[in-house]
């Protein structure tokens, strides 16, 4: 379930990038060189969900009711949820 989502412009403008985790269903959001958020794609009712967790304290930022048709769409949707949560 490896994903191939490019770093969105809103994140790149803030010195951010994406890095795949050791497990194919995990993507880290780095700001500078530090991993700030973990996006984890999970199966959900025949589709996919994206759990977003703040690295420093484990706080969840996602809406668990949102599902997506593919793993890539789940990461893209998770990034959009993160952007909204950060007010960017």
Mind explaining what this structure looks like?
With 88 residues, the chain is α+β, with helices and mostly antiparallel strands. 23% of the residues lie in helices and 34% in strands. It has helices spanning 9-12, 71-86; strands at residues 16-20, 26-31, 34-44, 47-54. The protein has a four-stranded antiparallel beta sheet, with helices on one face. The N and C termini lie far apart (28 Å). The model has no long low-confidence stretch (mean pLDDT 93).
Tags for this entry?
88 residues, alpha+beta
* Helix/strand order: HEEEEH
Largest sheet: 4 strands, antiparallel
Shape: globular
Structural class, from helix and strand content?
alpha+beta
Question: How is the largest sheet built, in terms of strand order?
Answer: 1-2-3-4
Furnish the topology, listing elements before pairings.
Elements: H1 9-12, E1 16-20, E2 26-31, E3 34-44, E4 47-54, H2 71-86
Antiparallel strand pairs: 1-2, 2-3, 3-4
